[in-house]
Amino acid sequence: MKATCYLCVANLVILGIFGGVLALTGFDLLKFLTFGHVVAYRVFLAQCGVSALFCIYSLIAFKPFKGLK
């Protein structure tokens, strides 16, 4: 479970970096790294969507910030 959380967060960080490069330069790094293959592009975006949902689920289910005040 811990490895899955790390993988999902890393996935979202990578997506954030790709989005930042696209926003600041206009160069779609993800499209470049997938060689313009639309299916691979969409698979990565779908995987990031599932990662985001898993991160939200883990925050609700495990309450990691419960003891913080």
Describe the structure.
- With 69 residues, this protein is mainly alpha-helical.
- The protein is 78% helix and 0% strand.
- Helix 1 packs across helix 3.
- The radius of gyration is 15 Å and the shape is elongated.
- The two termini are 26 Å apart.
Radius of gyration: 15 Å
Oligomer: single chain
Q: Tally the helices: what do you get?
A: 3
Summing up helix and strand content along with how strands pair, one would put the structural category as mainly alpha
Q: How much helical structure, as a percent, in the residues?
A: over 70%
Q: Outline, from the CA principal axes?
A: elongated
Order of helices and strands: HHH
Mean pLDDT: 88
Give the DSSP E fraction (strand runs of 2 or more residues): under 5%
Low-confidence stretches: none
How many E strands?
0
Main beta-sheet strand count, sense and barrel state: none
Our measurement of the CA-to-CA distance between the termini, rounded to an integer number of angstroms, reads 26 Å
In short:
The chain has 69 residues and is mostly helical.
